[in-house]
Amino acid sequence: MKKLLGIVLALALVLSLVTIVPAFAAEQEVLNIDWINTCMPNLDDVSFCVPAAAYFDFDKAPQSYLGNLSADVQQGATIIQFVGWYMSLTALDDVGIRRDGGEIEYDGYARDESGLNDAIANMGYTNSAYAKRLVIETPILSGTHKLEVVAKLAGGSTKVIYEIYYSDSDSVAVGKPVYTSLETVPAGGGKLTSDNVYWNPSFINDGVAPIFEGNEVPLGWYASTTTGDVDSKVYIDLKGIYDINLVTLDAMGFNNIAFPNTYKVYTSLDGASWTELGGESGIAAIPQFTRDSVFEGKGNARYILLDVSRFNLLEDGQGIYYGGIGELNVIGTKVADDDGRCFLEPFRSYDEGTCKDNFTGGQEAIGAPSAWTGFQTGDLDFDFSFRTDVSFYKIGFPAFWSFPGTPLTFEFYKDGNLVHSFDYVTQGDSPVVIDIGTTLPKGTYDVTITITDDEMNGEAYKCYLVLGFATDGNLYDDDYFVFERGNVAFDIYSTDTKGLGFVPFDYVEPHVAEKRGFDANAGDGLSYDQILINGTEIANGNAAVIAAKKSIDGTDGSVSTITLHGWYGNGNSPTAAFGYQINGGTIVYGDYFAATESAVTDLNANNRRFTMEIDVSNLKNENTIWVWAKLENGDEVKLDRFDNKGTANEKDREIYVVYNGPVSQQSNPPTADASIVIFMVAAAAIALVLLKKKGFNR
Q1: How many other C-beta atoms are found inside a 10 Å radius of the C-beta of residue 446?
Q2: DSSP string over 623-634
Q3: How many Å apart are CA 282 and CA 264, to the nearest integer?
Q4: Closest among 53, 61, 60 to 33, alpha carbons compared
Q5: Is 538 helix (H, G, I), strand (E, B) or coil?
Q6: Residue 613: inside a domain, yes or no?
Q7: What are the angstrom distances between the C-alpha of 305 and each of 33, 181, 291?
Q8: Which residue among 156, 387, 404, 477 is least enclosed by CB atoms within 10 Å?
Q9: Does residue 487 share a domain with residue 401?
């Protein structure tokens, strides 16, 4: 247990002043943290959360993420204790604490302390009289919370001088897949080895923080370059949909590796549309153990992106820039599963498509390896074809052999037209992923790859290329990809996560049901043959039906039923039901199928007759009744065919009837849709009356 708080604070004063490196400015704003701990009710320490640190002239309030405090609570912690001192630029009235954006609580957290002002004055600060000791104790609550330390200055203005976040949940990012767009290699070059595995991107979310010089320090991930401006992206796939509360970045704090100078943090559901949570710019190289950055969530997400645009120069003599973080934490709650392919994974071609090569004289390669060489025995170009139902911006070859420096031209043809071309110079034998320089839409493509240097070297061409191919169901020299014999091995990279990637040439896209009008181009056909009133025919044949359907007089109340007879069919999908719609209301489907003669089905096997008797005995005034068809593919089709409308040879074939019922002082009884609207209006009116009454009674 702490002996006496006064003795502890006196010791803290000595220690805290040691942590400050005086800048000898005449006037300066300083926040000094002695410690942030979790404690038992008697103030015995349970966990040391934040080490000593000092902040000078800060524009943005410093932050700390205390992490998951569940273990501390299990050991008896009930209090978070913040101890330090703050020197403002003007007179300081008090310091308060605000939880989750609520009211600021002032409870004597800022106090005068003997010796504090004199000690600071001895360091050369002219505003030392404004310095006050801060001792804040606040209860630990379950859930995820934000605490703000707020300074109340003379005159009543306030300023947030520190932000503290904590949770009782672990990071949902731990162990999830990490993707980076900048290779993380040692500053002097070379490849990753077992001696420098702390460069591994997976360390960014492994949840491990080894003890280093008495402190927990995440090893993290970092990269080095020879330029400050970079385009370094780190993605984490949460492998599910999460309601995001916080995204936090911890400094690496190991060998003084720099926090990024300039960066932003984003979230996304699909990898295509991104929501910015925040970022920072102009962050100087920082000392170890002193930095957290916390960004509050904005809705649901599957992906987290750390987008770094500038590193810090840490080895000036060598001109080497570093950027990296120790740990990226994501605090949130899972709201849905999402097993879809990550948008960063390639859409692989597998065993569909065709290709041609020099071994078969330019014919489709069946039973022969689809490898193209630039030797004397082969051609200097190679063709292959594929179809994709997603857009793509890169093409990859998992097996790719070449003479270094071989100049290539890639040409993409779509519908027989050249849509894109680009040049590429090979680097040698290795798998490659090539950025094609643009995004091409889904569709069928023919690709020609040409060696643009045909210089001979003895009996063979100077340059050559061999693409990976399949043999006996396995990709040559790589059993991870499986292809049928005769197909070149390649990958399609896409930002469209909704597609299937590479698809066979006979692929038919799934039909999306829609409510639409008549469309002959979609396979629709129809005929409107008869109208009957009370079971008696009044029109037969196109001309008679056109004349009768525009106005049927029932104003005397003598009409009880109207029967419409005709046929409809769609060449792509059978009809599941026929229905009618009165005045744009709900479509009423039923069993209105009638016997269909061969003369109709000979036109299209899906054509079906309908005979639709409609009860109009309760209809008043003017009414328009349309016939609809529902197809087995889910489409609903309004039979509003009108060929060549507005021309001399127009043909009105729309299947509807206008019925004039008895005149009524009131409109027709509302449909179900209209009843809902009336109910909502009435409810709103009642609510308004009650609201006014409530206000009056006050």
Answers
A1: 17
A2: EEEEEEEEETTS
A3: 12
A4: 53
A5: strand
A6: yes
A7: 31, 11, 19
A8: 156
A9: yes
Cβ–Cβ < 8 Å for 251, 212: no
Q: State CA 98 to chain mean position distance.
A: 32
Q: What is the DSSP letter of 589?
A: E
| Shared-domain flag, residues 237 and 270 | yes
The percentage of the chain sitting over the pLDDT mark of 70, rounded to a whole number, equals 76
User: Secondary structure of 196-261 in the HEC alphabet?
Assistant: HHHHCHHHHHCCCCCEECCEECCCCEEEEECCCEEEEEEEEEEEEEEEEEEEEEECCCCCCCCCCC
Tokens 């992106």 correspond to what residue? 305
CB of 635 closer than 8 Å to CB of 673: no
Q: Show the beta-strand stretches assigned E in 632-686.
A: 636-638, 642-643, 651-652, 656-660
Residues 256 and 184 in one domain: yes
Q: Residue 262: which CATH number?
A: 2.60.120.260
Classify residue 509 by its DSSP letter: P
**Model confidence pLDDT, tens digit, residues 403-418:** 899 899 999 999 889 9
CA dist., res. 386 & res. 628, Å (int): 40
- The amino acid present at 326, given as its one-letter code, is G
Helix (H, G, I), strand (E, B) or coil at 293: strand
Tell whether 355 is covered by a domain.
Answer: yes
- The domain boundary residue, chosen from 136, 167, 198: 167
Query: CA 227 to CA 224: how far, in whole Å?
Result: 9
Q: Are residues 423 and 479 both part of a single domain?
A: yes
Phi-psi region of 202 (alpha: psi -120 to 50; beta: other; left: phi over 0): alpha
Dihedral (CA of 177, 182, 183, 187) sign: negative
Q: Are 291 and 259 in contact (CB under 8 A)?
A: yes
Q: Could you give the CA distance from residue 482 to residue 583 in angstroms, rounded to a whole number?
A: 59
- State phi, psi for 86 to the nearest 5 degrees: -135, 135
688 belongs to a structural domain: no
Calpha distance 312→263 (Å, rounded): 12
Same-domain status, 80 and 122: yes
Of the three residues 309, 336, 363, the one that is the final residue of a domain is 336
590 has which bridge partners? 578
Structural domain range at position 479: 347-503
Judgement on whether residues 20 and 94 belong to the same structural domain of the protein? yes
**Both tokens of residue 523?**
């396979």
State the CB neighbour count (10 A cutoff) for residue 368. 15
The pLDDT tens digits of the residues spanning 478-532 come to: 322 223 334 566 777 776 655 666 665 555 667 889 999 999 999 999 999 999 9
Burial class (CB in 10 A: 0-12, 13-18, 19+), 648: exposed
Amino acid at 210: P
Among 9-18, 54-63, 107-116, 306-315, the least confident range = 9-18
Instruction: Report the pLDDT value the prediction gives residue 548, as an integer from 0 to 100.
Output: 96
Six-digit token string for 492: 């399609």
Whether 696 is in a domain gets the answer no
CA angle 633, 636, 641 (to 5 degrees): 120
> In terms of domains, do 379 and 261 share one?
no
CB 146 within 8 A of CB 167: no
pLDDT digits (tens, 9 = 90+) for 436-484: 988 898 888 888 888 888 888 777 778 877 776 544 333 333 322 223 3
Instruction: Give residues with Cβ within 8 angstroms of 239, minimum separation 6.
Output: 176, 177, 302, 338, 339
Q: Give the CA distances from residue 593 to residues 405, 611, 653, in Å, rounded to whole numbers and listed in that order.
A: 71, 6, 20
- 385 and 304 in one domain? no
Nearest to 147 by CA among 189, 105, 93: 105
